[in-house]
Protein 1
Amino acid sequence: MPRFLASRPDSRLIPLPWQTPLAQWPVENLVALPRGISRHVVRFIKVGSSVYAAKEVIEHLAMHEYQMLTNLHRLDTPAVEPLAVVTDRVAEDGEPLDPILITRHLEFSLPYRSLFDHGVRPDTVTRLVDAMVVLLARLHLVGFVWGDVSLSNVLFRRDAGEFAAYLVDAETAEMHEELTDGQRENDLQVASVNLYGEFCDLEAGGMLDPSLHPMALVDSIMVRYHELWAELTGVEEFPGSEVARIENRVRRLNAMGFDVAEMDLQTTPDGSHIRIQPKVVDAGHHSRLLLRLTGLDTEENQARRLLNDMMTFRWRTGQQHVDEAVVAHQWLTECFQPVVNAVPAELRGKRDAAQIFHEVLDYRWYQAQRESREVPLMEAAEGYINDVLRSLPDERRNLTMVPPHPDERQLANPFDPSQGFADDEDGPPPVDPWEAEADDAADAGVLDIAALRAKAKGHSA
Amino acid sequence: MATVSYKDACRVYPGADHPAVNNLNLDIGDGEFMVLVGPSGCGKSTSLRMLAGLEEVNSGQIMIGERDVTDLPPKDRDIAMVFQNYALYPHMTVADNMGFALKMAGVPKADRDKRVQEAAKLLGLEEFLSRKPKALSGGQRQRVAMGRAIVRQPQVFLMDEPLSNLDAKLRVSTRTQIAALQTRLGVTTVYVTHDQVEAMTMGDRVAVMKDGILQQVDSPLTLYDAPDNLFVAGFIGSPAMNLMTGSIVDGGVKIGDYTMPVARDVLAKAEGEDQLIVGIRPENFVVAEQGISLDVDVVEELGADGYIYGSLAGLPADEKLTAQQIVARVSARKPPQRGSVVRLNAADPSSVHIFSKKTELRIS
Ligand SMILES: Nc1ncnc2c1ncn2[C@@H]1O[C@H](COP(=O)(O)OP(=O)(O)OP(=O)(O)O)[C@@H](O)[C@H]1O
Ligand SMILES: Nc1ncnc2c1ncn2[C@@H]1O[C@H](COP(=O)(O)OP(=O)(O)O)[C@@H](O)[C@H]1O
Ligand SMILES: [Mg+2]
């Protein structure tokens, strides 16, 4: 009987075919959504009206990953949400099966391969890289060494004009109070090798814009990471007369989306200089503020955009002296909600609400430029819905991508991009003598001391 | 071609109250396969990262060959770190999957091709070079991953738990392959694992660590036959060595109702102690007339051999629950019955290890 480890048990999981290896699950349990490559068998499964991601993986790693993802969730760091580990699986023939880790499918997430399948503009690639750098720095700030940094282990979500990155794979991770430079450097080395490989793979598959070079992309990640880290944690020293620089540092960090919860401030022994260093910085400066004011839970740049619109609203309605919370409520009911409610139900899976609002604001700005007039919000919303939204793919679960467009290459297995395209057929595999040898493997957990003694004798003879 | 030495190397993490790696002294020979093993958190990975240049050395030195690399950046050390994770890229050929890190390092194409070709030959993968990896088996993928490291031709390979995410079967075949390849290549290798079976089957020598301190470094057989202390004795071997506490009496150590004879000169080393720990491996027990008496709880038959599990006979019921389990290998032809009482003795006095309870060192 399978066992379910979960913080909130979901009885809908019970009837699933746990006695079947995940790779052989019946199609009616599966959903073919785009995703990254993986070594393990990973499938998206239908559970009631929800979609979950299932990964078949050996027990100690499944438990470890569940634990790590739980920690990240508690720390409010972007990662997929762990739901359960299913252990004690036994196949119909009595053979034990590896456990399955279940996470919630991250809605509106875009794995990099699905972005690249449709061709990506060079500046989009830069944005993806930026999002990844922010994620890595955030993980490092909370003491999380990842160990397996790669594009495949990240999911992207639209975040106004930028992207937000989420962690998917925490198997190799460790958490400590604070990381050393060496531990962070280790992650960066892993990142550079993996990303170089992934960019080369996109290049080989004809999916990378020819103006982009894998090495240059990888270098830019290193540079950006170091810049960001220096801003987040670096020591700054200046003459006592320039105290405004303390405020400036905080503002710069806020603008980058970080709050300074604790700043270390010292004067030099001779009293002439001040030395500052942020000690505790939390990401989500704008999204926390927006959440507090409106209850809307959005990505950071979306929040920034919405807050800006709220400020414009306050100014336009002449409410500079009215309490922020009151204005926020008015903005929510008079601007945000009407736009979101104008979207027909069948189009709501295309973008999340905050992203739609952001795109409507953009649409209105361009229309206003074009027609040199003020465009009322609801007029822009109508225009956007009809001219833009209707023709966009569905991204909540990315369903329109399956089946692929006729001019797109077909995956060898629609549920697993790790197996490449169907049309690069190689013919029957060559014989491999090593494979045959590998079959008579001993029991991994038992020390065969007799064999060791025999081997040692052989050496000395 | 290089030796590696740690000389009094220490690493204290900021805020930690004791060093993660404490005065490590370890000399690794040219071409040697050295395995660092120990329970999680004992400082293995830290030691490896110190050698890689990814962790500051707070005091002491690290040498590669004649060079003091203590303060050199990672890229100047001529080492290749083999990561635990590897991905095969579906659109690239097996050859490109093996050689891409060389391309990244700016190695010219002709040289790259040659090195990939050589590595493929060594790995039995020549026939696969122009193929895409999608049809490769788990074992073949693992070999491509090894090829990635081999083509870099470093002075030293560093491997941190490269097999930890493989299933049992693949782990066994891959560990044999890595060890065989390392022997053929003759590149000095430092390999980290928490799995003592892996350590013992792969290493030329094995360094056992605990709480940041090197406990013993020796060939696998020496570790097994002559563990320096209680920790090594209990950590190495599966099933583990039986470690039984007994009182010192005239001529030996009393375990239950039996006095295990111990040489006087050994007992003399335990001056001032009342108790000693007797260690006997399960396969060194024989069923005998005289010996430690055991209540047999479980009998497990595995082919020609069997194991019996039980606890010291004659214990009161409440102590029995918490009593240490004793394991002995017995011939499966005539195994004792579950519920019976048997007497066990050491097959050979040299297989009885005596440890001081106070210092935990072996005194026999
Ligand atoms: N909760 C989720 N929501 C959306 N996508 C997911 C989720 N979990 C996994 N995926 C997708 O599945 C892919 C593979 O998952 P994952 O990285 O955990 O597998 P893996 O076998 O451990 O990979 P690796 O080879 O990197 O170790 C990811 O790249 C991601 O696209
Ligand atoms: N950044 C850190 N800060 C404090 N302690 C750490 C840090 N990184 C590792 N440690 C601790 O150092 C010890 C050794 O860790 P590690 O070398 O990873 O051990 P192992 O590889 O043997 O599991 C552990 O107790 C670990 O928790
Ligand atoms: Mg992954």
Protein 2
Amino acid sequence: MLRYILSFLRIIATKMLQLLSSRKHLIENVLRIYIKTTSGSTLSIEIDPKYDIKQIKNLVASKIGAQPEELKIIFAGKELGDNIIIEECDLGQQSILHAVKIKRNVPTDQSSSKMKPLCEILDDEMFSSNITNSRSNSFSTDNEVINISNSVMLENSTIRSKKIHFYVYCPTCKDLKQGKLRVRCHFCKSGAFTVHADPQNWIHVLEPKQITGTCENNPELCKDILQNKEPTFAEFYFKCSEHISLGETDQAVPLDLIRPNLKQIQCMACLDTSDTIFAFPCPDDHVMCLDCFKQYCLTKLTERQFWQHPEYGYTLACPTGCPDSFIKEIHHFRLLDDENYNRYHHFAAEEFVLQSNGLLCPQPGCGMGILAEPECTRISCQNCKYVFCRHCRQGFHIGECDVVENNDTAGQNFSCESDMNYNNGNSGELASRTTIKIMTKPCPSCKTPTERDGGCMHMICTRAGCKFHWCWVCQTEWTTECMGDHWFG
Amino acid sequence: MAALPRRIIKETQRLMQEPVPGISAVPDDSNARYFHVIVTGPEDSPFEGGLFKLELFLPEDYPMSAPKVRFITKIYHPNIDRLGRICLDILKDKWSPALQIRTVLLSIQALLSAPNPDDPLANDVAELWKVNESEAIRNAKEWTRRYAMDN
Ligand SMILES: [Zn+2]
Ligand SMILES: [Zn+2]
Ligand SMILES: [Zn+2]
Ligand SMILES: [Zn+2]
Ligand SMILES: [Zn+2]
Ligand SMILES: [Zn+2]
Ligand SMILES: [Zn+2]
Ligand SMILES: [Zn+2]
């Protein structure tokens, strides 16, 4: 009897599973999208990706009480022609199309049937050339290229016909993803916007007011917003292609230096040729595969070799030393794992404090940035409450700094035996503090703790902005006396 | 130990197949990141006729970090200290992952042809090189004969 019940249950369970899986199959063929109309309403419709725009118009027209011929369907900066199949547009689940009612009854433009959305029109030719690569003409005259065999040239041309990929950092997925290019009105931010020309390069996409267009949402207002002093401009942005759209404000940061490896360039570090590369912003095709780029960032971070760029922030340049090759979009460093990205932020903040002539709290595990008046010698940390002397970074004291070794530049030595009372010291903290001092000493110029790695007493501050040459023994600037007396210890 | 990166394998193969004239670099039998290097003293330099042994080690994060190179054979040179460490910018802050073992060894060879006593890293050798070059060169030749010509 029990066995009978069990097998009965099993049959039911299998049936339910089948039902579920077939239902799932059905759902996969349905695209849920939103249609925004110029009256401000949003329709939610489920469609078959095989539908064409004509069918969409019929569907929308019946719902808003209009004639299908009166409607324009706009997506990603383009009016979609009647023959376009939804599948051909790069629509994701819950994408938004815009339906605009035409005021006058204009006969359907024949050419519009060929119109495809922005993302379809962009092909590799336009974006493969680097923005700084004004030498694209000289490309074919390059000796190296001439040497390339015919078969490789053929391969390249087939690669060129592939669709372009954009890479973005998606704050929702918290990862590097492929992105989709989208456009909206620069003034009213409406997606009911058609562009007058396709963007040809990254400048058109990343810089404001490069491409003009027509706002279909509020044509009068957006045209006249500056009393016609300016045309209506397009504003480009990116969406993550992997997660379901979370609405119009859901955006991703374009990582413009991550590109498909169209020219099949070797990674400068591992010498492999990978499909996706990081292209340094220099004209010499210096590229790394993404794994090597991450490793490069990690090494430079650990060595404190990032630069605090006045415009871009804490960043890196091409490792071959190409001029003006700093990475502008610092979200590229999001490729670091979470722990190291936090370190990146931490170091960036420290660097900023140091460049603003601030100090870092010397307490282990604190490192709080403190901006104090230059004449103030008693510094107190708001974070850990440590009160210390500006010159020797020990607990605050009155009178001369406690200097252990003979030294003409007072206050540049750390003393392990100084007054610890100020640290309301637990012994563990003191122990670690002592070890830190044995392994590292602060750079006499910028106070960044520096580890001595070899036998040499000649230290060069590893902080990119400092590079001070100093002596491990004297803890002052490196001199010829140091060379003679204790270069090797 | 982790698998040897393809980059190191490629570089090693190339060093074997197309050796740099005047330089031999052979990986150690037990450690493929450790190279036994021999550099012949360049012609028209005080080191001519000498065979200089060096050791070269590729650290874990090579090529993000520079190789570590040291002279084993004693050498009288203003940019090389008595422990054999070399003062060469591309081994320090001018290192780039686009450089290779080959470029490093070529630069060391060039350093033998053109000692640079004005480099901030200098010692008594550098001092002598500046104040009395002919005596410094005599010393260099003498050291080459004494340490780099036997065996
Ligand atoms: Zn995403
Ligand atoms: Zn507008
Ligand atoms: Zn690589
Ligand atoms: Zn470069
Ligand atoms: Zn603190
Ligand atoms: Zn003090
Ligand atoms: Zn420093
Ligand atoms: Zn000293």
